[in-house]
Design brief:
Elements: H1 6-28, H2 43-65, E1 67-72, E2 75-83, E3 89-93, E4 97-101, E5 108-117, H3 119-127, H4 135-170, H5 173-196, E6 207-210, H6 215-219, H7 222-227, H8 232-248, E7 262-268, H9 276-288, E8 292-295, E9 321-323, H10 331-338, E10 343-345, E11 351-354, E12 357-362, H11 377-397, E13 404-407, H12 410-413, E14 422-425, E15 432-435, E16 441-444, E17 464-472, E18 478-486, E19 494-500
Parallel strand pairs: 3-5, 7-8, 8-9, 9-10, 12-13, 13-14, 14-16
Antiparallel strand pairs: 1-2, 2-5, 3-4, 4-6, 6-19, 7-17, 11-12, 15-16, 17-18, 18-19
Length: about 525
Amino acid sequence: MVRVPLAARNTVNQLRKTPRALVRHYRTRRPHPTVELVHHPHPWSRALGLVTVVVLGAWLGLLIVGNVRVPVGPMNTTMTLRPSLTGGTKINVSPLGALQLDSHHAPVRLDVNVDQLDPVRSQALVDHPERLSGLQDEVTRDVGHGTLDLAVRSCVAVVSGATVLGLAVYRRPRRALACGGLALTLLAASGGTAYATWNPGSVLEPRFSGLLSSAPSLVGNARSIVTEFDVYQKELARLVTNVTKLYDATSTLPAYAPDPTTIRVLHVSDIHLNPASWKIIASLVEQYKVDVIVDSGDTMDHGTAAENGFLDPIEDLGAPYVWVRGNHDSQVTQRYLEGLKNVHVLDDGRARTIAGLRFAGIGDPQFTPDRSSRPDTSQSQELAGARLAAALRDQSTAGTPVDIAVAHEPAAARMVDGTVPLVLSGHLHHEEMEIMKNGTRLRVEGSTGGSGLRAIEGKYPDPIEASILYVDRDSRRLQAWDAIELGGLGLTTAEVSRHLAEENQPGASPSPSPSPTSPSPGSPSPTTGSP
């Protein structure tokens, strides 16, 4: 047996006791303090939450107290600022409808509600009609005071709303005051944007929706609307003045006085056997005092002799009817129309003078009543357009230039670029307008029949579209046009939007006349089918 030295045994025993001692030590010593992790939101999340509170509070403030009631002349109105993605001004004239003006681009919209006509002030105007001459100045002052009052009230409403909501959400006065300050900053930025994009001439191109019969009286004629409105307040004043007259004479609305220097042309197209179109056209002729109607084709659907009776109401529309053949109109249709009184059929480029304007047109070379498309469609349209262009050049050489050319398909109409100031077409069933390379303006009309019975094939009915073209009697040039859009089958909406030719925009220089050129056969043309 080997004897282990005493010193070695003591060392081993010490090593055996060490782990137990360490365990007793760690069990008895005070534990280290622990650190609890607190979740802090991301700075971007905090900023987004703050902006949301500010915007929502400002919006609620505007809804509750952000409006003013202002007497404007004999009218009682309410002016309101509303959050908006596009800006602009909306003038609600109940029950006549509404006028929308692209007056500015900012996240706020100005709403002006004409509430009622004050009977006392209205009667004073009736008893003293001479006061109408000073009504516009009075309205201008009232609108100015109302706008200033609205600005102050809106500032208070925005700051108060954001501050109160901030206090309710964060429960900290400093955070609530920060919400109010941010709201004031956003309002100031919106006001600066509105000021920078302010367009005082926006009333020159308004959009009117509501009762169609009131549109001419509210919008005015092409000549006066260019010369009489130069600042926003005067524009609004004129509108309110006209509304006053409308309210004052509910049974006898003021007549739309024709401008003797303007020829009014009603452009229709693609009626497609819709019998409602004749009543609409007759109403437009009466309301706008139309001098001549131009139909750019597809009046029929199949072009059969059995459909000819549909055309008989044309004789009683109240204005001369200028017509060209579309791809749904047959030679049978054309011969029947040639026998109707008050109808002027255009074909082969032969010029006709009607209502003080010289027209020339060409019938569609295709006849596709089954809506089929043929591979040679583009080529035949360009050849027809080239024949029309040659006839127009011959007219200019003879000293009798044509004022308006008409062709059903835009592909044919494009070939006359540079030979006439204005060419009208249809076929596409939607509205287009462009100035082509050589200066000729191409006007494509939508479907005045709402695409006819085929409108029920789609999910939504197609609108009924037409245009009033204002042509200067002296220069024979287009001055302005009203695009008219009515709801399709089952709808009762109406909208009239005013547009000015570029040369009639405030500060614009007159545009040059079309330069006579021979369009090349390879000139671009849109893809054509058979609507």
